[in-house]
Specification:
Helix content is 30%, strand content 18%. By secondary structure, the chain is an alpha/beta fold. The chain has 2 domains: 9-210, DHBP synthase; 238-315, 3-Layer(aba) Sandwich (Rossmann fold). It has a 10-stranded mixed beta sheet with strand order 1-8-2-3-7-4-6-5-9-10, sandwiched between helices. Helix 1 (15-26) packs across helix 6 (129-138).
């Protein structure tokens, strides 16, 4: 069920705009804001009614947990049972595109909706001046999934948020394009460090910092973090992966010097550039009326793992 229509204000990424956004959050309203990964749809993580509005605005299933954004590791420890592995990873990679899933701390004050009934919580500290300034101005934790209708392409520009959520939320801070362009990497820190979702921080870097390989999530287990639904990040158009040329009626999204498309994620084969452009190009091709988007092969290394993860979920049967 969606929220009733409301005026959505486009806010500048300056002190006045950030303070207005913080005021919206204090009032229990929703605000989209830029991070280094994608735009997040923020609510006061301790206000159950505000968090419920996220699910309503996005038409998001309430069994799908949310990421809680915090200023730093000290703030994170108020809401999670911290451990040595979390300390090590936060020291190296926070602020940055890494989300840690840890046991929920009793009495921390987060709305139970944030964790979708799980005994764990997903936390990260964003590495973006606007996201950091909003956290400072608000002075508390902000629950924030991607600022798009559930299952659709994630937003990397304010215009993407306007197209998907205008009339459903109070405000959008326009902070320009998101530099990383894919969501954060999510690591579960239970008994065994587990890669729950590939993302903007390569898994190889995390494994190097920990000195161990990350385990894969258990097949068929309950959702413990965002981004684990089989069908997600989807354009309206159909998708065909590992394509080297377009078939009749398709548009081709290329990669590298060997597959030049109608648009190209990176002509040189640079995975960082490809990750930053992925959602923006899917939005553009979808808006152009493409019926089927054929996507060139992407190497399954480094950020390629995150790109392929998003592409596989985007191409999965809808409603899964």
């Amino acid at each position: 069920m969606a929220e009733t229509h409301q005026d959505t204000r486009l806010l500048a990424a300056d002190a006045e705009g950030i303070e207005q956004a913080a005021q919206f959050l204090r009032q229990g309203a929703l605000v989209a804001f830029p991070t280094e990964t994608v735009y997040g749809l923020g609510a006061d993580a301790c206000n159950g009614e505000a968090v419920a509005r996220i699910f309503a605005a996005k038409d998001r299933p309430q069994f799908n947990p949310l990421i809680v954004h915090v200023a730093d590791a000290d703030a994170a420890q108020r809401y999670a049972e911290w451990n040595d592995l979390a300390d090590r990873l936060a020291a190296v990679f926070w602020p940055g595109p890494l989300t840690l899933v840890l046991p929920l701390r009793a009495g921390g004050g987060l709305s139970p909706l944030v964790s979708a009934g799980q005994p764990s919580v997903a936390l990260r500290a964003p590495d973006h001046p606007v996201g950091a300034a909003l956290l400072a101005a608000f002075g508390g934790p902000i629950a924030a999934p991607s600022a798009n209708p559930s299952g659709r392409i994630s937003p990397t520009r304010a215009a993407h948020v306007v197209a998907g959520l205008s009339g459903r939320i109070a405000g959008i801070i326009d902070g320009g394009a998101c530099p990383v362009g894919v969501e954060s990497t999510i690591v579960g820190l239970g008994d065994v460090p587990t890669l729950l979702r590939p993302g903007g921080l390569p898994a190889e870097a995390i494994e190097a910092a920990l000195g161990v390989s990350l385990a894969a999530p258990v097949a068929g287990a309950a959702l413990t973090s965002p981004g684990q639904l089989s069908s997600h990040y989807a354009p309206r158009a159909g998708m065909r992966l590992n394509a080297r040329e377009a078939r009749a009626g398709e548009v081709l999204l290329g990669f590298g010097p060997e597959v030049r498309g109608d648009q190209t994620l990176s002509a040189s084969g640079d995975l960082t550039e490809a990750a930053a452009q992925l959602f923006d190009m899917l939005h553009a091709l979808d808006a152009g009326g493409a019926e089927i988007i054929a996507v060139a092969p992407i190497p399954e290394t480094g950020l390629g793992r995150a790109i392929n993860d998003r592409l596989r979920r985007a191409a999965a049967p809808r409603g899964v």
